[in-house]
Amino acid sequence: xxxxxxxxxxxxxxxxxxxxxxxxxxxxxxxxxxxxxxxxxxxxxxxxxxxxxxxxxxxxxxxxxxxxxxxxxxxxxxxxxxxxxxxxxxxxxxxxxxxxxxxxxxxxxxxxxxxxxxxxxxxxxxxxxxxxxxxxxxxxxxxxxxxxxxxxxxxxxxxxxxxxxxxxxxxxxxxxxxxxxxxxxxxxxxxxxxxxxxxxxxxxxxxxxxxxxxxxxxxxxxxxxxxxxxxxxxxxxxxxxxxxxxxxxxxxxxxxxxxxxxxxxxxxxxxxxxxxxxxxxxxxxxxxxxxxxxxxxxxxxxxxxxxxxxxxxxxxxxxxxxxxxxxxxxxxxxxxxxxxxxxxxxxxxxxxxxxxxxxxxxxxxxxxxxxxxxxxxxxxxxxxxxxxxxxxxxxxxxxxxxxxxxxxxxxxxxxxxxxxxxxxxxxxxxxxxxxxxxxxxxxxxxxxxxxxxxxxxxxxxxxxxxxxxxxxxxx
Length: 475
Known about the structure:
There is one protein chain. With 475 residues, the protein is of the alpha/beta class. It folds into two domains: 3-183 and 300-457, Zn peptidases (Aminopeptidase); 185-297, Alpha-Beta Plaits. It is built from 16 helices and twelve strands. It has helices at 3-14, 16-29, 37-49, 111-132, 146-149, 151-157, 210-224, 264-285, 304-317, 324-334, 339-353, 357-363, 384-390, 410-414, 419-441, 443-457, and strands at 53-56, 65-71, 75-81, 136-143, 166-173, 176-178, 185-194, 233-240, 252-261, 288-297, 370-371, 393-399. An eight-stranded mixed sheet has the order 1-2-4-3-5-12-6-11, sandwiched between helices. Strands 8-9-7-10 form a four-stranded antiparallel sheet. The N and C termini lie far apart (47 Å).
């Protein structure tokens, strides 16, 4: 390990108690999309107190901010998030489903860890730059509403990443690995149908059912699945079924769709076909439909130049220094995952260890080693993709969770303040700080990453999937 990496790690270790404290605070706030007022304020106040120039409310998002230190080129961005998920309230460290507030929010994707590890990386890098007189600029981007609203897409549209040379980020999870592939682009669209109410027995002929329209739309989209590309995904949730009285024709009903495909241009085309399913359902039922696009995520443009630097440092800070007590803590969570999740974990273990997979899982209730990211299959969406269209970007993960823990679950929330999570987020901070420092001080690396980025884009420019009149909103 080079001396700068040792020094950066030491600076991050010096502030680890404060890092954990704020991460745990954010875990407790559990604020969902665009309502992260306490979470963003505590992070921004902390960085401001350490001498960063903090700009709040960037990109038209009240809970977004940027903390900057240094001057001149290159400009290195480190991305953080702090939004939670709805319906995932859960007590910490408890291996059973036990909500703190029934139906309340919880950090089911670990963004309390994500944001503060990125803050810790930026703070540690600032300390090192001040001590050594290192030129260049570093920025932490506090990014709200990654879940369900694609907050970074608005920041990109408003030019918040103009002039940035390289971006780095990470994500909590069950593996230590560098992202080597892309993600699915994703649109979120509300379809609200309006009909006419009537007594369902006395005058059914006078009614026009909005709920019928939702159901017909859902049926038609299900038929559409046969005629779209294999890699595309469509999911929906009925948000408003029109009430609870079956003897009244429902005058209003609403469904929310997530429409995904490998490239944002694919999603644009597929979304219009889904829109036509909605229009057809309205025509069939004599209703009208309002189509409201509320979020858009672009696919990730991966970058192996950045990925290789990340992986070098990931191997320096992994395996984590986990105690027997830490492993016992993790093991109690591997025992409460669903049978389907256990089967998926077994398949992953077999791919890694062959016939010795059982021994591996017994030894590693936390997968405490670095995996080749090319072995891992994706399928989700992230608004990091939008950033990657305008700045060379890459990301990685560390094992903050017990092996097999399903994403977006109460089990993630329960482990969000635990010892494994705390140690893994510090490792992530060290990896990001070291990676950012290499690009900050090695112009050739920036040039190589930029050249690869341009090659992968192949002459395409950011498609800006957000409608011009779309604003960040709480819904």
